[in-house]
Amino acid sequence: MAGGADVVGQLGPLPIYVFGLTTAVGFAVGTAVTLLQAERFGLAPARLFQAAPLVMVAGVLGGRVLYVLLHWPQYARHPLAVFRLPEGGFTFYGALLAGAGVLALVARRDGFDVWRALDAAAPGLALGQAIGLVGAQLPGRPTGVPWAVWLGRDLVHPIPAYGIILCYWLFFAVSRLARCGPARGRVFLVYLFLHGLGWTLIHFWSAGPRFLGLSSG
Length: 217
Description:
The protein is mainly alpha-helical. It contains seven helices and five strands.
């Protein structure tokens, strides 16, 4: 998900970008939710808390690397733009793959069940992404209908807003599943399946050069 580069403030000499801010808040909230879920899955919250910084760094790097690879012609012309992380430009699945990989390594080192850790993380992933997507939605200017925003001179579907609705629904769905004592890995795999299906439907519904008179942006 590419984020908007709108500046919302300064931290000393450093600009604070809206997408970077909402992503950071989303990660913090998602981590807190994961720690609250940990005991339900037989995990020590302290162990997951210790792993959180490594998972965060891996997620940021993984999300950025995959985004750059998918948009390589753009970055080949401006290679230094690769390092402008606060401006946005990440892919969720790159972050998820890298973060889960690091979590698996930490779990093997520290002796806890990686599938249970991923189960505990699923509700936090959904809620954290919902919060992070707010920063991607803010650059759009509202219109008189909920299914369209102005982005520059284009009238487009508010894809991030659809994603926010999906992610909040996922949060409640997998949180409910987690309370049912499912088999190890089931909460995370259900989350992964529904997340992929939901985003596929969102992009299919708004795909093509025009749909309901709107471009997909």
